[in-house]
Write a structure and sequence with these properties.
Length: 293
């Protein structure tokens, strides 16, 4: 339990510096100044921003269901932190024999709280953002589930730790499953609602989407859950395909930041067509080929 608490604290600390790194990279690519005032080179800018957000006034909204309105973002943050329990360390902390299936189950619960945040905010823009988010989550969750089922079939185990041990013995995880690794990373980008597929929070057309009625505590917790999810998803992909090499998992996090800076936002209908008409048949075809092998 102590190891898990240390892992969670490290993840939360990583969220602080990861958000600062994102702003630094964006400023470098766009040739402008980034955060550089707070402490040395702006290292504590994210901490100051978090404190400022938590100190903001929490307005009382009369037309919302206040309990679900306040609990939903906290539940999203708890889910993103709980996923770290599935990450395979040198020894499995909770000894989840079916950790890969539990991972799919826990990540799919995010859709409910995202829907609650939009629905119980009593705002049509929040509702539009939550509906688009739920449909996007359903589209990628099916593909991620099929890839994980394929990995279970290939490695004959449903435990992240067992897959990691088998990869270390064969030393061929990435090269043997390179196409699946690329597909999984693309699906993770969609799952994280990162640009260019941030359809849930497209500011230009959704006015911040499902979290438009959130402020102070709620908005801060949503940001924490999003950045924590970015880190753990990259590490999960690393444990499935990259033998859990720390440097390669960090490189995936860096690629996420580069993608946001380089590519423009895609159309929502094109994204849904790509998921259902291109990615899903491709994964099902690969699954059929593996069944024949």
């Amino acid at each position: 339990m102590v190891v898990y608490l240390m892992l969670v604290l490290s993840a939360l600390l990583g969220v602080v510096f990861f958000s600062m790194l994102e702003r630094k990279i964006l400023s470098l690519i766009q040739i402008r100044k980034g955060p550089n005032s707070v402490m040395l080179m702006g290292l504590l800018q994210s901490v100051v921003d978090a404190v400022k957000l938590f100190m903001k006034e929490q307005m009382k909204l009369y037309s919302v269901s206040i309990f679900i309105y306040l609990v939903s973002p906290a539940c999203m943050a708890i889910l993103s932190i709980f996923i770290w329990a599935f990450y395979p360390l040198s020894s499995d902390i909770f000894m989840f024999e079916y950790s890969m299936l539990l991972f799919v189950m826990v990540t799919s619960l995010e859709a409910y709280f995202l829907l609650f945040m939009g629905w119980f905010s009593s705002n049509k823009f929040s509702m539009m953002g939550s509906l688009r988010g739920v449909s996007q989550i359903i589209s990628f969750e099916i593909n991620i589930m099929l890839i994980i089922l394929m990995m279970i079939y290939i490695w004959e185990t449903a435990s992240f730790l067992s897959v990691l041990k088998l990869q270390s013995e064969m030393v061929s995880g990435l090269w043997y499953l390179l196409y699946l690794a690329v597909l999984m990373f693309l699906l993770v980008v969609v799952e994280l609602n990162r640009s260019p597929v941030d359809m849930v929070e497209g500011e230009s057309e959704l006015v911040s989407g499902f979290n438009i009625e959130y402020m102070s505590y709620g908005l801060s917790v949503v940001f924490i859950s999003e950045f924590s999810g970015m880190i753990i998803m990259c590490f999960i992909v690393g444990s499935l395909f990259l033998c859990s090499f720390l440097l390669l998992a960090l490189m995936l996090c860096f690629v996420l930041l580069i993608i946001r800076s380089v590519f423009p936002r895609v159309r929502y209908d094109l994204l849904m067509m790509f998921m259902w008409k291109s990615v899903l048949p491709l994964i099902m075809g690969l699954y059929y080929l593996y069944m024949l092998m």
